[in-house]
Specification:
This protein has ten helices and seven strands. The chain is an alpha/beta fold and about 270 residues long.
């Protein structure tokens, strides 16, 4: 039996627990999820370096998954453009069942190997692209189809699961499998398995974007002024780097098409690294 499908001995009577008892055991398992991520840092690092090198050559990063796994990939992909100023075709999330499945679960969609192949091939994959197949159990046919299609064109393949030795791991160039163990609610892998995967996906995209030069020190210097909050953040970032006050920084940005990097360079106070 898969570790993620086993019963958790600490929660066999959770239906009789008080609210505070439920929360305590859930939080204990959340901590265990974070500990499981720590065991996979070396593999996560290998994936980051390999993805980053391909992206420097014009490659894209794809997340492919089903259910919770697919939603996590789509979420991370959708957050990269506003956070790092990259185009929407730089990081792409693909989930079984398409966009409709983001809101309405389509569990049967994960069983289609052909759909996994088709949905990824539609993006005209190249050897510079990277594909992360996300499946907690590690055997979703949709993800297997996508990874094998990626492998066939020479793209980088990464398996993200929570079960060592699973089918997607045997396909991929790099395997990441935090052992999160039995869930608080048996088989409900949207909980700590999903938490671990969310952490890992965040790590990967963040580190890749740093390596692409979209971060200066620990500041987001590729932001777009798409709303009031982001415009204000851009002014504060520019002020922090240049030492100019808020109004001077705003004027600097206005004079430089609200581009932080251009503004900093023209301030003559930007030290490239």
């Amino acid at each position: 039996m898969l570790n993620t499908e086993k019963r958790n001995s600490k929660t066999t009577h959770i239906d009789k627990m008080s609210t505070s008892e439920m929360l305590k055991v859930m939080q204990e398992e959340n901590i265990n999820a974070a500990k499981a991520v720590e065991t996979e840092l070396e593999s996560i690092g290998l994936a980051i370096d390999a993805i980053s090198e391909r992206m420097k050559k014009g490659g894209r990063l794809f997340y492919v998954g089903c259910g919770t796994s697919g939603r996590l990939g789509v979420l991370d992909a959708s957050e990269c453009p506003p956070t790092y100023g990259v185009s929407y075709d730089t990081v792409i999330g693909i989930m079984a069942g398409g966009d409709k499945a983001l809101r309405q679960a389509g569990e049967a969609d994960e069983d289609s190997y052909e759909a996994g192949c088709r949905d990824l091939i539609a993006y005209n994959l190249t050897p510079n692209d990277s594909v992360i197949g996300i499946s907690v159990a590690g055997g979703a046919s949709f993800v297997i189809g996508a990874l094998e299609s990626a492998k066939a064109v020479g793209a980088l393949t990464v398996a993200l699961s929570c079960n060592c030795g699973c089918p997607i791991e045997r396909i991929a160039d790099i395997s990441i499998h935090p052992d999160t163990g039995a869930e608080v609610i048996t088989g409900s892998t949207r909980m700590k398995a999903g938490t671990a995967h969310k952490m890992i996906i965040n790590m990967i995209s963040t580190a890749v974007m740093i390596k692409q030069g979209h971060v200066y020190e620990n500041l987001m210097v590729n932001l777009e002024p798409s709303n009031v909050k982001l415009r204000d953040r851009m002014i504060r970032i520019t002020s922090d780097i240049t030492g100019f006050d808020y109004k001077e920084s705003e004027a600097l940005l206005v004079n430089n098409d609200f581009n932080i990097k251009k503004s900093i360079e023209n301030s003559k106070k930007f030290e490239k690294h």
